[in-house]
Amino acid sequence: MDNKVKSGKEILDDFFTNISIIKNVDKGLAESLANLYNQGKLSDTYVKNELSNLREKDVDKN
Q: Is residue 52 part of a domain?
C-alpha cells in the first residue's frame, strides 16, 4: 500500500479549487476567497474588504 499523506498546502489547494462546488456555498463568495488564496492575499483584512464589496454589490442589485 502506498498511501501518500497530503501536505497542508495540498489540502488547501484542493479545498480552494473545489470550494465553488460545495453544496450551499455562495458562488460569488467562493470565487472571491479562491482568488484571494491564489493571489496569496487570504488575510483577515482582504477577506473583510471582499465581504464588504460583495455586500455592496448585493445591495446594489436590490
A: yes
